[in-house]
Amino acid sequence: MPHLRLFAASALVLAAALCVTVGCRSSGSRSSSARASTTPVPPGAAFAPIARVLRHPRCLNCHPSGDRPHVGDDRRRHAMNVQRGPDDHGYPAMHCATCHRPANQDAALVPGAPHWHLAPRSMGWEGLDDHDLARTLKDRSMNGDRSLAALREHIAEDPLVLWGWDPGVGREAVPTPHAEFVDAFDAWIDAGAPTPPAGTTSTF
Amino acid sequence: MQIRFTLNGRPTSVDATPDTPLLWVLRDTLGQTGTKFGCGRALCGACTVHVDGAAVRACSFPIEYAKDKDIRTIEGLEASATGQAVVDAWIELDVVQCGWCQPGQCMSAAALLSADARPDDAAIDRSMSGNLCRCGTYPRIRAAVKRAAEILAEGGGR
Question: ipTM score here?
Answer without folding.
Answer: 0.95
